[in-house]
Design brief:
Strand order of the largest sheet: 4-1-5-7-8-9-12-13
Number of helices: 9
Strand content: 15-25%
Distance between the termini: 40 Å
Bound molecules: aspartic acid
Helix content: 25-40%
Radius of gyration: 21 Å
Order of helices and strands: EEEHEHEHEEHEEEEEEEEHEHEHEHH
Amino acid sequence: MKKRICILYTGGTIGMVPSEKGYVPSSGVFLDLLRAIPDLYWADMPAWDVVEFEPLLDSSDITVREWNQIGSAIAERYEDYDGFVVLHGTDTMAYSASAISFMLENLSKPVIFTGSQIPLGQIRSDGRDNIISSLLIAASGQVHEVCIYFNGVLLRGNRSTKRSSDQFEAFESPNDAPLAHAGIQIEYKKRVLRPASEEAFRFQPFKELPIGVIKIFPGIQFDYFASLMTDKLKGVVLETFGAGNIPGSAQNALLPIIERAYQNGTIITVCSQCSQGAVSLGTYAASSALRRVGAVNGRDMTTEAALAKSYYLMSVSDDMAFVKSQMQKNLRGELTE
Ligand code: ASP
């Protein structure tokens, strides 16, 4: 029997058209463009349906609300399909794939995010292969997790990050090997793919919580931090230097602010500005202070994954000790323990 895949079309370059202001998503044209691709009807292809979101978005406009919409659209149709392909803008695809990987608990079906660098309606579009291969991967029975497929490579969604604004190879997962390569054959790395969950599938929507990301830079000033780190802030991902280092000199007084945030109950997760490698609090004196004030070691998590995981855990529980301990655990393949 043919597998059935649901395509959720949320917007992004793949379906955009030129306008006076630059590329914009356009509703109503995309389905015709898809129907004009003969490969999508070949015998080896799964059957597919399209659900078009309203409004279609440039992914820069995606918020927690849209993550919840994508999650609930999948949850509502979970039993009706063998897999899902989410067409999404590339700019925030790594954030959304991370978010959906946490929202969808106990997955046993594939959710493949893809999009394109050139719209489907234009010459040399990469969208055609990205959609065809994503559909084949979603129907392969090999994948049971949230991934990004782009330019011949399948990556774990919550390990991915956008690496290029103008190359077809738009994504990478520097701390995790690709899950599959699509050459003449699609070769799955069975050893690293997550098995299908045997527990009951569950959708956990996110709360719209005050959570932030702060990138540390040389000369960062006290005031910059103090205005953000109020007792309203539930969580913050610190993008630190190297293995988790922050400036420690007395005059910038960064540490007392972080300490106050910790006392306020804000969960501080330490990630690195390096795309490859892990945070190791305490390796340098410049990071040991973060450990002393109770920051979470984000290890080799991407900022995108750490942010999404903060939303997820704080939506599940108000118990900050629980959130903190779960933050450091590998929940969906997002970090190396
Ligand atoms: N700005 C677009 C978006 O993220 C870029 C893209 O899709 O490649 O929606």
